[in-house]
Design goal:
The chain has 5 domains: 119 residues, Response regulator (Rossmann fold, 3-Layer(aba) Sandwich), CATH 3.40.50; 130 residues, Response regulator (Rossmann fold); 54 residues, no CATH class; 26 residues, no CATH class; 255 residues, Rhodopsin 7-helix transmembrane proteins (Rhopdopsin 7-helix transmembrane proteins), CATH 1.20.1070. It contains 20 helices and 22 strands. Strands 8-7-9-10-11 form a 5-stranded parallel β-sheet, sandwiched between helices. A 4-stranded mixed β-sheet has the order 1-5-2-6, with helices on both faces. Strands 20-22-21 form a 3-stranded mixed β-sheet. Helix 14 runs antiparallel to helix 15. The protein is elongated, with a radius of gyration of 48 Å. It is found in: Cell membrane.
Amino acid sequence: MCFCISVISLMVVIMGILAEEETAICELLGSPELPLLSKSGDIFIGGAFSVHSQMAASSLSLSDAPDPLICTRVNFREFRFAQTMIFAIEEINNSSSLLPNISIGYKIFDSCGSTLPSTRAAMGLINGQERTFGNTCSGHSTVHAIISHFSTCACLSNRKEHPSFFRTIPSDYYQSRALAQLVKYFGWTWVGAVRSDNDYGNNGMATFIEAATKEGVCVEYSEAIARTASKEQVERVVRVISRGSAKVLVAFLAQNEIDILLEEALSQNLTGLQWVGSESWITAHHLATMKYSGILYGSIGFAIKKAKIVGLQDFLLQVHPSQDPQNHILKEFWEETFGCSFQSSLQETKQCSGSERLRDIKNPFTDVSELRISNNVYKAVYAVAHAMHSMLKCGENNEAVNASCTLKRKPICCFTCINCAVGEISNSTKCSPCPLEYWSNEDHNKCVPKVLEFLSYEETMGTLLTAFSLFGAGLTLVVSFVFFWFRHTPLVKASNSELSFLLLFSLTLCFLCSLTFIGRPTDWSCMLRHVAFGITFALCISCILTKTITVVIAFKARTPVNTVPQCLASYQRMGVVGGTFLQVLVCVVWLALAPPFPHKNTMYAAERIILECNLGSSIGFWVVLGYIGLLAVLCLILAFLARKLPDNFNEAKFITFSMLIFSAVWVTFIPAYVSSPGKFTVAVEIFAILASSFGLLFCIFAPKCYILLLKPERNTKSHMMGRDLQKKH
């Protein structure tokens, strides 16, 4: 059975690999393996038992061993295991508390205690009875669980290779260590060892030798016997044992191998040894006979715990071919039990009447005095049933409570649970955090993509800011049209029309550059928004600074206004270009060394991703902003110094007001920008751009538009020059 379970695990891995070949079309070679015993149901449990054996131990001839692939006789003990499985399933099907309204079916295969039949049984359990498997080389088995009743090999504890294997009997790892301690307890420090040449024997003996060495026990020899070993190989092993000086023999053997070894031990008259046996044979009834008493007398070992299974004996005694007339195994069992045949053509054998009674027979099938492995089968079926019951109950309760919560040191489905934290999902045993860009849904059973947050045109705030930006740009164009219409009037000429039109152009760009801050950040938009902001505002403040200098020069000049050098216009252009060029240079260096780029910020808010423009270089941003601030401060100082110019036309006073508003907005902007979360950081920056732009537009141009449109009588040369200048003339 241990071999069969290993084969099943290996086949699962192999078919998983083959399933990756999408173009492969797999077809079963030969006929599909059919179960010996089966019954339909809602849930299927599979089992593999050595229902047939090669030959009875009493008639085994090493010199004329049968073909290992031919299964000849019914193994009554293994057939009892199979019937015990059926008995447990029938008990559960008749239960009103365990899996109510659900029937369990079964499929029992014959492993025959041999490699090839075990492989076929494993394939039958995994693949079902399909002949072709489409393009995945993977069949679709209806079996939901496979009973492992006697798999003690420690190799099956490897969770990587056998992730879905659960034991119903302890691992040989513990038995081997216990045998070492048992030998040490009796003071046997010099022992021999013999083992089965398979995973069961090799792994078990390796653990024993390791543990024995630590206990101070020395192993004189360690020999291996295979079930298919030749007569010469078995003779050699027995000679090694008989010639050895160790009087204690630790035999880690399966029943087939112990039978072979004892037959040869009888022929060589091997006696006088203290045998220490493994669980597979130490309680075997067929060895407790006079035939082997001279060899095995006084043998000790660790036995599997025995138990009583109420109702099993009556169930076994009711087994009869009439239960399933088409099933050949029931007929074989009956024929071998009573030494008869259902075929009338066999003259040498009496014919079975069917009236024979199992109560009159004493054999390993009917003997329930020491149920050890049978109890493992019984417990394994109930373990599967309880697991299925819990799974189904989990599903019902999960739908009722609608919470996949995690259990804190409680059995699964007890529903004494707490909710997983936000950002975590539950897999019924523990809470697992979602990946960085995902978040848990309301039921905490699935990770969903986080919400992406950025200031978009569709949301209310984005729409309002867009509207104000377009309104500001449109209003600036209206002012430009008004100035163009009255371009030949004294007021427009006195306002330095060239600088005024350039200032209005830069204000239009300032309003429009705020639009680059709205929408999903991209590589281009991130670079454009900060560069456009820096250059347009540098152009705007450079125009105002140049205008302020011009006003101061004009009214502080010793000569009359009309005699101010005409070359001043060239200086104005140079001032604007120079002031703007320095900002352009800073922006070019910024973009070349560390340009802004789109960034997914997952640190600020755990439940959402903030799409923002990373500055690339904070120094570059603050240098751009600082340069604009420097121009504004210079402009404010000069305008303040020119505050006592003639009252009728004091443009310096309006520039002073505009710079005070501009400075107040951007001084307030810094703490608000640093402390605002997510998309509100962008909104604060847009608000500062719009507020300062509207401040400049209204403070500088509103008084002039008022005169141009509503007070045309003030739009005269004499009024513009004022009384003081008239006295100069």
